[in-house]
Amino acid sequence: MRPFAYVSAPDVETAVEAVSEHPGAKFLGGGTNLVDLMREGVERPVTVVDISRLPLTEIEELPDGGLRIGALVRNSRLAADPLVRSRYPVLAQSVLNGASGQLRNMATVGGNLLQRTRCPYFYDTAARCNKRDPGAGCDAMEGFSRSAAVLGTSESCIAAHPSDMCVALAALDPVVEVRSVRGTRRFPFAELHRLPGATPHIETRLDEDELVTAVELPPLPPAAHSRYRKVRDRASYAFALVSVAAALEVRDGTVADVRLALGGVGAKPWRAHGAEALLRGAPATEESFRRAAEAEFAAAVGRSSRTGMPDSRSGAESAPGGQGARAGNEFKIELGRRTVVATLRRLADEGSKA
Ligand code: SF4
Q1: CATH label, 222-353, candidates 1.10.10.10, 3.30.390.50, 3.20.20.70, 3.40.50.920
Q2: What is the pLDDT of residue 307?
Q3: What is the CATH number of domain 1-55?
Q4: Which of 94, 112, 291, 323 could share a disulfide with 228, CB 3.0–4.6 Å?
Q5: Please, are residues 88 and 168 in contact by the beta-carbon 8 Å criterion?
Q6: Looking at per-residue confidence, does 307 or 51 come out higher?
Q7: Cα dihedral 46/211/204/261 (nearest 10)
Q8: CA of 269 to the centre of ligand 1 (A)
Q9: What digits encode the pLDDT tens for the residues 240-263?
């Protein structure tokens, strides 16, 4: 790891001033992603501003029935909060499906919003990677792409967004609050993450000196009946091959409201607006769910299982289909469709029994 200067910030003002005074400085919260990246030589900040002591650790009920979640709330606390569990179970489930207990005890909500891809070439400084080294090329294109995205990719980058929590948030339409020396601004979560396009190294719409201070969830009654389903190579401590965050409200056999977001398949947390539009007002049947899933994945682009190289870093030793199936990601398209259908079917079944 390269030497770096360390600043401990006692309050938000000091933190944002310190970062604005030190170009290239990074905020350090739980450190579960940044420290790994620094160890691998992918991130090389000259200055690290420790924000772990800032008073951003509360989960507060808002007058309209929503929730305000401080950026330094630990993931384990978020998942255990009674209001989160009852009003937004999909969010609690998504967090519990991510990482390990130890990591969830350290990782923060703000850090989770900004965690970086787990594309193996991004972490390998000997590999070509446009996200780490703009203009260098992308070794994933003809290499191991099992973990890569099939929606929202570009000719420059096919990396998948890694966060489970962000998939649930994408379905819930929260607002993100950020602070800098220029003041506070708030914007929809849907505007936070960028698609890679020709500039995959620019991952969010945040300025470099902006600190995430909170996420605010709106009141959303359908979210009380929601679920997060994750398909992965191991039962725990593995990133999603495909995940689905869904909330479903059925009245008289018809879909009255639905929220649907996908993980493991998108270059950013993927809100399935096309599928939602088809589902609203449709019969709550497997046929409708299948049609919506097919529409959402119609633009998906997968890579052949024969183009990729076998790779022991994948953690995919249990993958079906032998050596070739480990390398490509085209299997995610049908797996994604089926996971959408299974998740909605389960929510519909539960709703009819309630
Ligand atoms: Fe880098 Fe993106 Fe290519 Fe992975 S897919 S090597 S992150 S440019």
Answers
A1: 3.30.390.50
A2: 53
A3: 3.30.43.10
A4: 94
A5: yes
A6: 51
A7: 130
A8: 17
A9: 999 999 999 999 999 999 999 999
